[in-house]
Amino acid sequence: MKRAAPSPTAGKGDTASKSAAQKPLLGMVEAGMKTPQHVTAIGHSLLHIMYCVGVWVINFVRLVSFSVILIPAFLPYVFRYVTDKRIVRGVRFGDGRRCVMDIYMPAEAVAARDGNGEPVPVVIAVMGGAWVIGYRAWNVQLGLRMLDAGVMVVAVDYRNFPFAQVPEMMEDVERGVAWVFDNIAAYGGDPTNMVLAGQSAGAHLSSMVLLKQALAEAMSESSPKAISGQETPTSAGSVSPKSSDGSPTSSDGTPASSASSTPSCRNAPKRGEVAVQCQGSWSASSLRGYVGISGAYDLELLGERLQERGFSDALLRSMCPEEDVGEWSPRQLLDSKAWKAWAHKAVPLLPPIRVYHGGRDKTVPAASSEEFIAALQAHDVDVDAVAEILPELAHAEVVIEGPLRGEDHQVKWLLPLLLETADAKIESLPPLTVLLPRFVFDLASAIMPF
Fold this sequence. Notes:
It is built from 16 helices and 8 strands. By secondary structure, the protein is an alpha/beta fold. The protein has 2 domains: about 25-70; about 85-445, 3-Layer(aba) Sandwich (Rossmann fold), CATH 3.40.50.
C-alpha cells in the first residue's frame, strides 16, 4: 500500500501565518531601532534608573555608616529601653498590630497613681521614620530625659507604608491621642496638662490630626453633618481589661488599658470634601500646646526636594490615596475651602503651636515650617503659632545627635508649655552623659544622608 504523497501546498498556510505574525513584531523592532528618538528615550530612561539606584545605594551606605559610627552611643539607650522598669512597653490602644504605645512613668507619676501625689504633665510623642521605618522606640532618648524632669512621655506607634496609607496612619495616631485623654489618669498623668509633639513624618501626621480635629469640632458646633454628608460621630468610651490585682494590663502583662473605640479620621474624602471623623473624646483646645520638629507639612514641597536630590517622589504619591499628596498635606488643608469657611471657629480651638526646623535640613525644606505657620496666620483670627529656624541644625539632629552630644533642645521647647517653673526645672536637670568625642558626632552628622 503506497503512502499518499504530500500535497505541494501542505504547510504553506502555517508558514504564511507565522510570517504574518512575525512581521508586526519585526516591524516594531526595526522601527524602534531606526528611530533616533526612541533610542535616545530608552537611553535616557536607563540612565535615569541607574542614577536613581545609585543615589539610593549611596545614601543607604551613608545611613549605615552613620549608625555604625554612633553604635557606642546608642547601646546604652537600647539597654535602658529593654531593662528600665519605668518604661511600660506594649500598651495597646487598638486592635491593629501597630496600635501600641510605650509609657515613660517618672517616680512622681507612680506616686500620683497610688494617690500620694499630684498628676504629672504628659507629652504625647509621635516619632518620624519617613512613613516607612517609624517605631515608637525611636522616642527613647526623649522619654528617658523627660523622666529626669518628672514628665511622662507617651510614645504612640502607627502603621507604616506599604502596609498603610496616610489616612490609616492618621487613624492610628488619632486613636492613640484619644486613648491617652481617656486613660492616662490611671497612670498618674494629668489629662489637663498635655502637649502633642511630632518629628518629621510624625509631625506631618500629628499636625494633620490636630487640624482635622479642630475643623471637625468647629463644623459640628453648627451642623451635625460633615461636608461629605457623613454624620459627625460622638465620643465613645473604652473598657480596660483588669489584671489579678485590679489594675489595667497590656499585651506584655505590664499595666495598661485596652484600646479605645474612639472614632478615627481615616476616612478619605473626595476632592473638595473634608472628612470630619477625628472628633472623639478629646478636644484640640484641651492640649496645652503642639510642638513640631522638622515637619513635612507640605508633601508637594517635599516631593520637589526629593527630586532635586535625585530621589523619586513615587513613595510620597503611593502612600496618599489617588496619589494626591496635596490632599493629605497640613499646609494645603489650611488653603482648603472648608478650612477657610470655618477658620473663624477652628483656629481659636488650636493650642499654642511651636514648630522648629534645622536650616541645614537636606530632606525637608525649612520653608515647609515657615509656610505652614504663615498659612495658620493668614486668617483674620488670632493664633499663637511660631516657627523658628535653627541655621546650624540638620533634619534629625535635634532628636538623635543632639541628645547624644548633651544638648536638650526638645526639653527646652516642651517644658515651657507644661510647667510654669520650666526654667528652674531645666537648670536643675542632671547633665546628659556624653560617651564620644565631639568630632565623632560631627563626622556622623556630615555622613547622615537626611
